[in-house]
Amino acid sequence: MKIFINIILILMLYVDSEAQNWKQFQQNSEHHGRVTSQIQPPYRVRWFWVGENLTLRNMSSHPGWPHDLNSRPGYSFPLPSNINFTISGNVQVVANDSLLFFGTMEGDAYFVRIFDGETIRKVNLGYPIVSSAAVEGNVAVFANLYGQIFGLNIPGGNILWSYTFPKAITIAPVINSGKVFCADHSGRVVALDLQSGLPLWTIELGYPVQSTPAANQNYLVVCSEDINVHLIDHNSGVKLNSQRVYGQSFRDTHPVIFNDRVYVTAVPAAMFGSEWMMEEVMAGSNSFQDEETKILNWLEGNSPYPFASPDWRTKYVLNLPQLEQPFQVASGPNDGCGSPPPSMVVDNQGRVLSWFKTRFPTLTNPTVGFGSAYGMDLMSIDPNDGKRVRINLGTYAGMWMLESDNLYALSISGNQIWMRQNFRGTQMINLSNANHVYVQVEAQVRDGGNFTGSDISYVVDESSLPQNPQTHWQGRIAPSFAGGYIFIVEPYGIVCIERKP
Questions:
Q1: Which residues contact 100 (CB under 8 A, 6 or more apart)?
Q2: What's residue 302's pLDDT?
Q3: How many CA atoms lie within 13 A of 102 on its CB side?
Q4: Maximal CA-CA distance, the chain
Q5: pLDDT computed for residue 122 by the predictor
């Protein structure tokens, strides 16, 4: 009996350990974007990787480490002025056991040790890597911009196999059940055997794929640029269904599979969003329920308010496997500055969360940040009727630097929701008590604001940030979590964040 109990405990520890890895973009092939563990504030930088030959290591984090990475007003980290690599804004570091994996726009794939940021392997794959890697077992998978996908041995870094697509790849490979799924700008979708790289099936969709697919053990969901959502049999590659939605693109969004539903984010109309859109709808609403009705009417084109049209829809819920829409979601245009609306995330209470514009917020802030009369709030989607469900904890988080056209990518750690974009930095709200932390910004003085109240700032002034050899590839990517640490990506490095005792 004792042996049996020990075996169960070992299995439970193994499962928990697996759940805390971040093996691919948004943690798993369904893109839930969550782990169950969490790290309490306050926060500090543990190490800062700025190239294969230099990792700054915080002297306060481990005996013998030499660098002062303790943020404070008037202090800048000892970062180099120039570096010889550029990391795409669409890269999220992935992790398995003791190693992190990521690529650069110079075409280099890196294996870096989680504990201290030491570079373990560097493998040149020929052309720019602009998306996240994926790992499983002893294989790390990277795709480059010129349509090549590689399987690399862990930890050696030897190239085990490669496959070449007809056109560019700007999305992350996805791994599920021993298969690697990827797609390119020609519309080719391929399933490869993880160990051998041999093609298992291929399907041609005819239109570019710029949205990382999602997969479970039965299905692969692929969004193509003719604004169709496709359901493909995971094993055979047979297309089972397609559903066209409104929108102009799926670029830099990703579907989420959860509880026999697909949650899809699309870029609306001919712009990426605007601070002034739907303001009249908000102004004309006298309650949250009234606002819900008015937004849905506006999105049907059945509204007296300006610009009413289905073209402004951004969020869709589709049933599996039919891909039918059981309801509409009251979500109009949001985000901007050239960025698509952030995709949805699943928290550890089983809620699908996203940003919604509203006159009646309950979580983020009762006042508007910038540019519009009404602000943004984080809410869930009711799986029964699609209605917005507010998170009301009896107090506001007081989150600031929040604009309807300048939003944050989302991920989950325990009860915490993490929000990130490179320009405004990283914020966190505890979903159990509304505690808010401004975790990180690059510079203490930026865009007319003073950010010395954040836990982490790298430099006093942004002119002191390292210069890259290539133009930045813009994107908004959420933090990832592994080994009890938080990881964020800058164009000039990888930052490991830990709790400050």
A1: 93, 94, 110, 111, 112, 113, 114, 482, 487, 494
A2: 94
A3: 34
A4: 71
A5: 98
